[in-house]
Structures are given as C-alpha cells and as structure tokens.
Queue: 4 jobs
Job 1
Amino acid sequence: MPNHKLTNYQDRVLNYLNQQPYLDPGFSLDTMVKDLKMSRSMISQFFKEYFKQNVLKTINSLRIEAVCKELEQPDFDMNIEELALRCGFSSRASFYRNFSLEKDCTPVEYREQIKSKLL
C-alpha cells in the first residue's frame, strides 16, 4: 500500500514540475507545499528517493537545464543575467555558482561550445 501512495505523490510532484513553476525566482519549497497541499517532509523525502538529492539542488538542476535549452537555441540573443532571472535564479552569484557546479564551465563557455558545434 505505501508503494501505491508513493506513486500517487510521485505523479503529483512530477506533473507539477513539468509545468516548470521553478522558473519563477520566487519559487521555493514552501510554494510546492502550498500548491501541492503536501507536507515539507513528504516532498523532501520524495526528492531524496526519486532524484537522489535534496529539493534545492534538484530545482537548481532543473533551472540549469532550462538555461541550457535556451543557450542551445541557434538564434539565442539575450543577456546572460536576464536569462538567469527568466530561468528562476534571483541572484547572479547563485546562477553562476550553480551553473559551474552543474556544467563544469561558465554559461558563456557553454554557449561557445554549442556555437562551435552548430557551425
């Protein structure tokens, strides 16, 4: 029975994340608690079991994924800080730190790598 319950929570959380609410810089675990009507501990436990990392790390990874999709567009022409804000980061420092941790390079270096592959 607990397994069925996890599947129900899993579907709710994953469907919610597919809507990309984390692209809002004001998004937080509290936002998820309110929107999903689930407890903090339940959401945290789900993230640890499903994503193998905590909520914040997962959300930042999803945000970086969104940034990379933008950077990979052939016609990308946006200020990097503007992009960071559009993808849910509220500070430049947090964005650059998380991007470097996730991708092992800066956003500009990542874009240059993509551009060289497009040529």
Note: The helical segments are 2-18, 29-36, 40-50, 55-71, 80-86, 92-103, 107-118.
Job 2
Amino acid sequence: MAGIFSGLEKLGLGNIGGGDLFEDPKKKEAAVKQGEPQKKLTLVNEEDYLFDKKYKCPVCDMDFEAKTVRTGKVRMKAVDIDLRPDYAELDQTKYDVIACPECGYAALGRYFNTLNKYQIDDIRVKICMNYKKLDYKEPTYTYEHAKNLYQLALANAVVKKAKNSEKAYICLKTAWVLRGETQRLDSADPDYQKKKDENDAQEKELLKNALNGFVMARQSEEFPIAGMDSTTLDYLIAALAMETGDYDVAGKMISEILTSRTANSRIKDKARLLKEMMAEEKEQ
C-alpha cells in the first residue's frame, strides 16, 4: 500500500499508510462476535470550462474555493470499460476531489460533508496537526496536483475509517487520473516510455485495490454503494477483474449479470462486450 501513498511526506503526512487499506468484513464480524503509444490529446482553454466554487470546511469551518467543472459545458466522447467518462475538452476527474487548503481535509465531492463528530476529531488530530499547507494558485490543475489531492483524500478516508466503498472509489478515480495523464503524454518525449510504464504500473495497482475494496463493500454494505445499484457495481467489479487479470471473478460476475432478472438490457449488452473482450485476451 505504500506506493499509493508515496509523496504524502511533502504534505507532512508521511505517517499515514501503514497496514491494510480495506477492512475485511469477515474479520470485523469475527471480532465482534494497453499497448501502442496513444496520440497526444491537446486541451484547448481548459480554464474556460472551470469556475471557483465556494465551500465551508466541516473540519475547521474555513470558507474556501475549489476549481469545479461547469455543468453541461463538457462533452463526453467515450466511456471506458470500467465506466471512466472521457470528455473532449478536459479531464474532469482531475477536479473531483475537494480539499480544504487550510487544514488538509479532503474528500470526493459526494462524501465531503458526510462526517460525524468522531471522524472530525480523528482528522483534526491525525491530518490537521501534521498537514503542510498546499499553496496552489494555478488557473487549472496539473496532473501532479490532482494526484496530490487524491492521495490526501485517501489519507483522510483511512483516518476517518471510511467505508470500503469510499476508499475503493478513491482508488478507482486515482487510476482514472493516471490514465488521463498517460493519454496526454507526448510520445515524442524521450522519457515517454518510462513515464508510461510507471503510470501503467501505478494504475494497475490502484485498480486492484479498487477491485478488492468494492468486493468487500458488496459483501457488507447496503445499496446504493458509491452511488451504484447492485447490477452496476457487479459490472464494475467484472470490468476491474478483467483489467487486472482476475478472469475467474470477471467470469462469475458477468454470468450473474447475464442471468439476472433485474439487470437492464444496457448493462447486459456491456457485460456481453466484456465477455467477448475477455475471450480475446485469453486467446492472446
């Protein structure tokens, strides 16, 4: 797990990251009882698609602003098999973490205000007291800055003992950020292949963590999980399993979707496509 958190030292949080990332619900219960270089994508006036949205930090009560993508301004051109949306104008995933620049509290937007008193106390002691302020004034987020924010969000999730689904979702979206960065690397750069290989390895590690976390969440949490119903989560687990080479899990989840009476035709079509892709990969 250390690789996911490498770099937190510069934020004063190098002590976060020991032990297991996810809490095994079974243990808890017992205690109670891809290939060719891609063409470089160019972003045109990314700043035009952003605005500064105001927030109040639930941990330190500070008012601050964070970059947010204007709703309806960006066009989705594709969706990856693991449900990552790919937009034409910018990489929206870079802007999905909200982080208080004063105290270091950070979370994905859907979880930002869902803190209880005990979680706030833990964050104040383990994050805020050690946090080195991140002074970032650029008009858009670089990939390096976005990755820092995701690391900070994961560190906060660990400290506040967030649900496995929240930590898995952060891992998944961090993997998406790395994928977006890889797509935008300049293939003419002499360090292109080295950077691509590093990103690909980190992305795969994060996808494996996301898979493990979502599998555990499916066993112990009530739906919706990270905003997903049961068939959508089953599909995502199948896609993550295929991407990380766990074909047994992928095959099992695909079969469950295809034989489900509640899964709609759209998700069944996606599952069939996944099944075809998996068969092709096995033949290679």
Note: The chain has a mean pLDDT of 90.
Job 3
Amino acid sequence: MSLTLLGARPFGEEPVDIVIRDGLIAEIVPAGTLSAEDGAADGEIVDVSGRWIGPGMWDSHVHFTQHVIRRSRIDLTQTRSAQDVLDVTVRARADGAVLTGGILMGYGFRDGLWAEPATLAAIDEAIGDIPVVLVSGDLHCGWMNSAAASRLGVQLDASGLLREVPWIEVLHSFDQSDALPLSAYRAAADAAASRGVVGIVEFEKTDNVVEWRSRVQNGITSLRVEAAVWPDRLERVIADGWRTGDPIDDQGLVSFGRLKVVVDGSLNTRTAWCWDPYPGMDPSHPLACGMESVPISELSALLERARDAGIDAAVHAIGDRANSEVLDTFAALGMPGVIEHAQLVREDDFARFAELGLVASVQPEHAMDDRDVADHHWAGRTDRAFAFGSLHRAGAELRLGSDAPVAPLDQWISISAATARSRGEREAWHPEQQVPMDVALAASTRSTLAVGQPADLVITGRDPYACDRDELRDMPVAATLLGGRFTWRTI
C-alpha cells in the first residue's frame, strides 16, 4: 500500500512530495519531483496544496473513560460558587438529566476560590431525595449528598466532600467500560484524530490491557495507545508477563506502558504535598502542607518491583515536596522514568530531572485553569509553578498532555498554553515560563518527519510558527494519518 502527498510544506520550508509505503515515510523529495503522469508516484495521490505538515500529535496524559463519560454528566465547568453548582444541578434534574445507575452526576466544579464552602446540608437541601455525586474538575474530590453516601457506603463530614484515595475508589466504581457504548469510545477517538492526535498515554484506573485490545478488535483504530497499569493490578500483569513496550493488540496500535503511582493530591483540592503550608492553614494541622497519598517507602517498593519486572514508571507529583521525594526515589533506585504534572518544583530540583534522566510530563492548559488558584494557595511560589520554561532550560525532556477530561484532548490547546501562557483577555502569566514553539511541538510528538519514520502525520491549514495564540488554539486540521492511512481528512 502506498500514498503520495504532493506539495506539503514542513516547518516553513520549501514544499516537498512525500511517498509513504507500508506505513513508513519512504521518500521526501522537492515538490514537483513526483507526479502521476511520469509514473514516479503510485497508489493514491493527494495534493496537499502547500499546507503545513508535521509529525502527528501525542497527548501524553489521558483518562479516556473519564473523557468519554464526561459528555453524559451535568456540565459544571462554568460554575463559580457552591450555589452556582447547586442551581445548575437542580435545573439539569428538572430538565431530565440522565442518571448513571440511579445517581445524578455532574462534572467540572472547582472549589479552590469559592467564597462559601461546600456543605452537606446545602446539597441535601437542594436535592435530598435521590443520590447526587458531583465530580471536581481535577478529579480529586467529589461533592455528594447523604443519599449518595448511603448508597455508596462512605462516610462524609460536614462539607459533603470526599477527597483523594477514598474518593478515587468511588469515582472509578462508576466507570465500568461495559456501561458505555462502543460508539461513545469510537466517537471520542475519532474526535481526537480530527485534531491531529495520533496517540495517547492512557492512565485510566482499569484493566487497560483487556479493554484496549477489545476496542481495537471492535474497530477503534484511529489512535495509538500506551496503556498504563495501577498498583492494584501490578502483580497480575507481572504474572501475565507484560513488559513496557510489549504490543497488546494484533494491529500494533496498543502497547503496554508504565506503572502509574499517585503520591499526592492536587492544587485545587489543596492536597498537593508541599514543603510549606497552604495560606491560612494552621501549620500544625495534619493537612497544612497537603498529603502524601502513597508513602514514599511504598512508592520505592512499587517502583523497584516494577523495574525488576521490566516495567517502567510514571509517578504523579504536583506539590514541590512530592516532586522532591519522587526525584529522590528515582535517584535511589537508579532508574529513569516520568514525573506526571511536576506543577510546583523547588529551584534546586529543576536540574535534577535531566541529571536523573526523568521526563517531565506536563499539562499546560492546567496553568491557564489554575493560575488564580495558584496565586491564592501558592502565593509567593508561582514563579516556580507550572514552570515549563525552567524545566526546559534545565535540560529536562518535556512531554505535553491534557489530563483529559480535566482539559480538552487537543494538543493545539496545550501548545498554545505552553508557548503563550495566556488565553481570553488576560495577559501572559509568568511569561518567563513560556517555551519555544519547536520545543512545544517536539514535546507533543513521538516521531519526526524523516525517511524511515512512521507515517503518523498531521496536515494543518496554518503554519504553527506563523500563528498567534488564538489561531493555535483553533488550528484547522486538514488531515491526520496513522501509519500512512487517513484517520481524518478534509482534503
């Protein structure tokens, strides 16, 4: 099977013709060298007409089922207070919102800057006759009423909020893949392809080996997937013989990824593990500096077990103490790996990412969502918050992602946030932490535009190097190719 792309323009250079054979880039020659008339080109021929072309996009942090299921939950992303959340939820219920297993569910509230806190009494008063579970935008806590707590067998305090480990167990109890139609997964994968995405790193807390193999077998073939495992399934995958990089499906689209361990919470939930107390917190309070979700001794044992079994690691660390402790753990074990989020980092720790061979997997749109929360809860520390520029200058390898559904599964949004540090009417937030366009693009891809490379490609209507911030966020994608076949095209 062959495909020839005529007149593509890579990286602002002169147009080229590209020949693709057997899923790989076979030739790149000056435009006009190949044509159907002289027989130099064979198979399908597509005139790209001078559009920009580059390697296909990878989103390096996705919770795919959460991303899919978000569409069926009440949208709380525009709410700004506890009362806003309750008003939207009550209206949605009156309008016939669909229940999930008999529970009314919403997604997207952010309570970090609410003037009045969430309370169990308020949600019980607003909706007390049916179970209600509302998921925070960062996925690290949920607000529920007494009926839901009774149904789920959990204990609530006066806030009605359940946080971190107990909450995450509850959250994933709603997300059995067989409860969602295959068509919903296909639509989400195809939507990602329409934005130039060719691959994702899957961090859903489920049996990703079985579920993604089944999805590919059932025709969801528009994405490559690197599928992670959580600690509760680690011994099983070791016993089954899985190693990082092993192919999972017959088409070579899904590979076994890394062990995912979460060592602290999040900024919006004020559970990120920090060296200094959160403003306004009594320093003697056990959560004044956030929380250690997985003890470092346990993290070390998990990573060592995975390493010895040929499984690499990706560790969630948001607060600066979490990052310090995780860096120390990787150093002690002498193993490379990925630190997910790296949102707050001590100055002395930036250089250690490169020194230890660790990748910083970051989500630039989180900086846009959380800048005000950071200015409040990390006051005096935001010069090193979401510090992508500092990480890059220190030599760290960056990978960009969305953490979908926390931010949109759209790498052009991530690239815009990384390079501009602003959106809407606002000025750039800590512009010294911007990264250059070539760095952002490289951090969003896994291949290059070169002979012998996989023909995972994106063709766009604009040259990203010539785009302003908003043009990047709204980048028109003319085509996406995965292994030389179109997964999205308008040309």
Note: The two ends are 19 Å apart (CA to CA).
Job 4
Amino acid sequence: MEQDIIENIGRVRACLREGVTLVAVSKTRTAQEAKTAYDTGIRDFGENRVQEMLEKKPMLPDDVRWHLIGSLQTNKVRKVVGEAYLIHSLDRPELALAIEKESAKKDMVTDCLIEINIGCEESKSGVLPEGLDDLAELARSLAHIRIRGLMAIIPRGTTEENREYFRRMKQTFDDLKRKESENFRMEILSMGMTNDYVTAMEEGSTLVRVGEGIFGERDKNRGGNKNG
C-alpha cells in the first residue's frame, strides 16, 4: 500500500502544471496513509468532515496545511476556525456570518473560497450562479474573512462536458478578479479531481483535489466520494 501511494503521487505530479497546488484528499484514509503522502513532500491535505480533520491533525507534522473541502454546518464553525488553513466551502450568507463572528472572537482572519454550484445540481452544495454576486458583496463587507478564490465540484460528464463547466468557472473567476479588494482576491481556482484534474488544469485550475488517484479506490463504507 505504501509503495502504491508513492508511485501514484509520482504519476500525478508528472501531470501537474507549473504553479498548480496538489491537495491530497485524505478523507476516510488513515493518518499513516496521509503520513506516507507527507513523506513524499505533500503538505496540503483535504478533509470533508471537521471531526476527521481534527482527529488527524495532531497525528501529522505541524507544517501540514489542512483544507476543509466538504460542506460546513454553521454549528461546526467554532471548531474549524483557527484549525483549517483554507475553507473551500463558503456557500451561503449564514455561513459567512458565522465564520465572521467566530473569527472576530478569536481575533483572526479566516481564509475561504466561495463554492459555486456551477451545474445547479440539487444534490450538491455551493451557491447558485445567480446568488454569487450577493454572497460576494457580503463577504467583501466582513472584516474577519478573506476570500482567496473559488471552488467547484462539477457534474459528472464527458471530457468535453467537463471542459465547458471548467471554462465557465474560469470566466467567473476572471470576472471577479476585476472586482478585487483588500479582503477579496481571486488567487485560487480550486477545481478538478481524480478523474478530471488534467482537463481542469488545461482550463485554468490553480488547485486540484486528488484522493483516489493518490490513495487508491476508497472503501465506500468509510465515507462518500465527494471532492476526490
């Protein structure tokens, strides 16, 4: 297993474009599996659940950057603020206000990505495209949140169908880049997973989230397959 992870990471790295961040999606994986990836030089790890991230965090070195890539409930905000390097799933006003409140309590600024439901799928989280402007305006007004870019999980489809969604995300990213402010920047475009990260990079992704492509097929009894 350890050697498989090392070889898989080598294959993924061989495909990475310059300047693209690789996040190893370690959800449902053991801390030892994550440590094997860490030992190859990976420092960015993605988790879906707050509790799982908090359990693994003390088992890995302090220089790991933990990305919360799953949906975040407002009642879990107090646990994640100050613990996650980057929250990928800011998708609604009440969550933004909860992060702002908790960050203010801790006298810190929390880095977030706005998650967009670019395919308008009922089964997926993310702000719908028509609600993006209002959420962005709210985020700009909050002193303890720093928006660093966008995230999306696109609908499953053919390579060309995927490409169209990635292009729409990149266009949205570029449009918002013209409206940047001190706490609202378009630096990170988080899109692309195991089956489509190469296409995502071709269309402008700056961060890809790879789980099964690194750790192998996931035991479906240990968690869902979102975000990897």
Note: Residues 159-177 form the longest helix (19 residues).
